[in-house]
Amino acid sequence: MEKVRGLDTPFFLVNKPTFLNNLARLSNKIEGLGTSLRPHFKTVRSLDAIQYLLPDKTSPVTVSTVKEAEALANEGYSDILYAVGISASKLSRIRDLNSKGAKVRVLLDSMEQAQILNQFCQDNHCSIAALVEIDCDGHRGGINPNDPALIQIALLLLDGFAQFQGILTHAGESYHCFDQISLRESAKNEVEAALKATKQLRSVGIACEIVSIGSTPTAHHYQNLDGITEVRAGVYAFFDLVMAGIGICNINDIAASVVTTVIGHNKDKGWLIVDAGWMALSSDRGTENQPRDCGYGLVTKCDGKQIGDLQVTTANQEHGIIEAVNGCDINFEDYPLGCRLHILPNHACATASMHKQYHVFDTQDQTYDVWTRIQGW
Amino acid sequence: MEKVRGLDTPFFLVNKPTFLNNLARLSNKIEGLGTSLRPHFKTVRSLDAIQYLLPDKTSPVTVSTVKEAEALANEGYSDILYAVGISASKLSRIRDLNSKGAKVRVLLDSMEQAQILNQFCQDNHCSIAALVEIDCDGHRGGINPNDPALIQIALLLLDGFAQFQGILTHAGESYHCFDQISLRESAKNEVEAALKATKQLRSVGIACEIVSIGSTPTAHHYQNLDGITEVRAGVYAFFDLVMAGIGICNINDIAASVVTTVIGHNKDKGWLIVDAGWMALSSDRGTENQPRDCGYGLVTKCDGKQIGDLQVTTANQEHGIIEAVNGCDINFEDYPLGCRLHILPNHACATASMHKQYHVFDTQDQTYDVWTRIQGW
Predict the structure, then answer these.
(1) Does A314 map to a domain?
(2) Are residues A91 and A187 in the same domain?
(3) Any signal peptide, and if so, which residues (chains A, B) (predicted)?
């Protein structure tokens, strides 16, 4: 397309048909299992893309920052889950959003946070709904699904000025699974942890309106979602090399790349120097401990065709160094100064975060859009 | 200060007196050696800070993107060096800046680039000045100072429509030096490579108006700069853990930190969970191969006092996990939910790049400013 050639490099390119295909694949899967998807906005973070992620303004959405919640609420989206442990300092912004008609739920995993939330609601004559975070695999936060503290926290919220609305868990350790069996086990374990928690609550008569689970690897491997009210996932929208390494997608499913220009040859060292460093690619090395370490990204031609042995092996601020790996040599004539290459990201959330805008191409219907990313907290 | 407590976390804080002290330290050193500093704008990238970096609008400055050059030229700064290998696609923006009165010089290291530049200048009835990049330590781009291609490139420019104005080298490998002797050697080697290149050019009667060298580690270790017309450095303005690890600064000289809030305790695992993940800290692991690996950053109290054994060991998008290292335990009572900590960056350029704004405090005269960062390319 003419437009892509006119843009200065480096820039973040979205292949729109691939993006839409990724969205459809997961929503079909989750809806096919009888539950609903609550997409995580943290990956795409653009209101220009929101119509594709959320069918309507009441569609459930997950955010990782209050800033995203504010942007979505401002556009009229109402069913928002802020899925990072709440701190007192963020509550007034949540209250303000709720007072304007949004329903922003918060997350917590301790009596202390529940007390803080109750106190804030009492002091501010408001009621904020909370989910309790359950730890299903030791990845980050949350309490054990069998921990009696779960009931105590739920009761504290139910008896106080805040609201208890359910539980949430996230199988973050699924990122370390590399075969279908362990992925299915991780998915099953995530479901079971959520159900254990709800069972414990039900045993004392506490209902869970929301039973929220999800991570991109597990979301693609659920077999049965009975008792689960929603699934969260984010990076599935773009996909990336980490997800390809885990086996969740193919390289061709990666909808995002950084377009870069060859600005130097170091023939003695076998280096192509390009104008995409970590400012454009991010410093994310998410494939470092995977069976295939992709450096700072794999290289494709402009038609999306992967160049087997080339990867970005070094990233400085505005320079990337591309080398052939596996004992291959670069044929420098194939990559003259000024030629353009695409770098597939290790971690699309991280690479997207380095860009204010995405350049979105639909090669099928020959359209081009610019999507603006919401920045900050 | 009241203001710092009112800001939502995470945010990027600049300790202004420390920042000013870092600037003064290097400019005094370089001026004391009889040459001038051409600060690299890529670290700070804020026009709000420019008055501290550049004494006046004719002060020399280095940039790593055309976007920075445009921002500076728009403010009237004229002496700009774009220190990334030039590609044809960026030349029209350089021409536009020069036609408005700026003098933006470009960098190249091949006959092919010199031909492209000449052709562009001929076609556009303009003349753009170039420096030739010299490779002093095998770090990235450039040609060997003794390579006869240097004379060929210079002559091609001199005989063509572009201009040849001198040479540039960068001791990027100095980042792998960990003692004073090797730092001094790296600094001396950088100077010598530059002088070798100018000697080769002089031998055929070609003068170098500009002999530009620099990296933050070497810049602090030059002994003699005879024959060098300018020194470039960027990260010295903020400093960071990588620089402290190399021994260029002390921890107390680090002028930048990310302020974060404790949002969770995992007492079983010995984890403090904070609201600064890689979105706020960057994924940079620049200390990974240093004698002291600082994870994703070291932790200080709000008064800047370092907490000896705490570091961010894991960074997710909006979560950081802080652990005590060296066999120590965290006393959780010291870090209640809601308490604030500061994270010192591995690499200040990378951490600053994650933020649209810097919150700049002068604890001495109790002033507060917001500096806006220039984003994109």
Answers:
(1) yes
(2) yes
(3) none
